[in-house]
Amino acid sequence: MLVGVLALQGDWREHKVTLESLGAEVLPVKTKEDLERVSGLVIPGGESTTISNLAKSFGLFPHLREFARSKPVLGTCAGLIMLSNEVEGAAPGQEFVGGLDVKVSRNAYGGQTHSFEAEVSFGAEKERVAFIRAPRILAVGSAEVIAKLGDEPVAVRQGKLLGATFHPEITGGTLLHKLFLESIH
Ligand code: GLN
């Protein structure tokens, strides 16, 4: 099984390392042809405006949208923003893949100096993760909340799509990657 990590910008290498540590074979995805080869895709954290601009100039949006309609996609931080149906604070003209019925607010905790690590709960399981210029999930429509920070939703699932406001791959978190890989099998 070959899985992809969208490698336009952001910390795609860390996701590749995490997925490989779980036994997956990983392809950095930069083109439509790369996308056609993979059974699932991770959209990493980074800067959603840059990821969006690059995806637009490489003509990837129609292919990413088509992929997300039928195959597993995990989006973390900027990747969650890319997968959200509604984005507060989007840059003018910024395009998204969509598919997750959530409303997110970009940079909702403040800037880089307000970045932090925290323990989030996946039901009874806890994991230490990093929030880096993270978005907040303001509203959850038909998506299912799968992780919380206190009372706040920080990860959601809808069909084969998974999204989280945080970076698990920086602190050695694997729970989301495991859910992602399980949904491919
Ligand atoms: N603030 C970034 C954005 O809006 C996301 C930050 C991240 O992915 N760590 O795209």
Automatic annotation (TrEMBL):
UniProtKB keywords: Glutamine amidotransferase, Hydrolase, Lyase, Pyridoxal phosphate
InterPro entries per record: Class_I_gatase-like, PdxT/SNO, PdxT/SNO_CS
The organism's place on the tree of life at top rank: Bacteria
Keyword Lyase on entry: yes
Active site residues per record: C77, H167, E169
Reactions catalysed according to its record: L-glutamine + H2O = L-glutamate + NH4(+); aldehydo-D-ribose 5-phosphate + D-glyceraldehyde 3-phosphate + L-glutamine = pyridoxal 5'-phosphate + L-glutamate + phosphate + 3 H2O + H(+)
Known role: Catalyzes the hydrolysis of glutamine to glutamate and ammonia as part of the biosynthesis of pyridoxal 5'-phosphate. The resulting ammonia molecule is channeled to the active site of PdxS.
Full protein name: Pyridoxal 5'-phosphate synthase subunit PdxT
Organism ancestry: Bacteria, Bacillati, Actinomycetota, Actinomycetes, Micrococcales
Gene name as annotated: pdxT
